[in-house]
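Page 47, continued from p. 46.
Same chain as before, 385 aa.
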Amino acid sequence: MKSDCYALFDLAQWKNGLAFKKIDFSSDGEPVIKIAELKNGITGQTQFTEGDYGDEVHLTKGDMLFSWSGNPETSIDVFWYNLPDGWLNQHIFKVIPKPFVDRNFLYYLLKSLKATFTAIASNKQTTGLGHITLKDLKKLNIALPSEKEQKIIGRYLYTIDQKISVNQAINDNLQQQAFALFEQLLLTADDGECSVADIAHLNPKRTLAKNQEAKCIEMSQLSTSGAFPSGWEKRPFNGGMRFSNGDTLLARITPCLENGKAAFIDFLDTSEVAFGSTEYIVLAPKGEIPPEFLYCLARYPVFSDYAVKNMNGSSGRQRVSAETIGQFKLPRPSTNELKRFGNVVSSLFLKMRFNSLENMRLSSLRDSLLPKLMSGELDVSELDI
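Result:
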């Protein structure tokens, strides 16, 4: 594969966002996009503005963004912008490829440089933060393949990501069906009122021996909108909340609770126990309650609002307790209604699990191919596009 050498800086225009001031914000208008929005989407923490700041920092779906400041491991990364039209905050570049650079190729090139960016930013780290400057981009030399090869590489990797996106869209639809059934179930419930503690075990006892190898799910791996975590890893157990299949995880600390961090556990082996953050509340069903019911409850807006409003503690470290969660009141459906609900939603969650596991396999394939394609180890020059 023949390549020409360029500085990374010369492959694109790098438009930095604005340093917004308090007077710029309003209760209406378009969102101001910070790194938090790139990670978690539009949340209750998002700020808005009615101002007009020009095309260079205005965002529309499909824009390529590179966050260049923050925690070197988790914040410095490249993103496709998929949120509503908004305005770019400082510490993020809007990346506009030069005419001779395929935009998909450039996106995956930046992805492939993650370790390099992390190392550069870590060397400049102050108070836990690091950064990548335009000067750094000028020092990074890139072997750029021909435009044809760029298109082949970019399209192949993009196709994998598109399949992941399709699966995620299907899961979003399946989850919305489950939520609609859940809300209908509560509306028609006629068996009196109950508390969460009546229908769920809160932080039930699950056994793991100290230093026993087990799956660990970090808070960062919980989704703000979906049921399935982004991944897990095996490590020795040295503390944390324990859980097993059928359990629902609910983040109890700010801002994770406000952002909707939750998960439904349905991917472990029979009798397998996993563990994670001490900042989880674990909900396990009692009696005839379908396990999916508790996950739907965790994402029920009325319940979420109750949990957030009942947090306690110092500013920035507020938490809701399991005892408080247990006191939440809701209508109690009959046994027959719960059985019908469980029969339907269990099949929806099964499909969601299948799609989520496929997405994990596709992500692993993409990540293993990425360095080989970018380095030229896999030659695509003879392939047709």
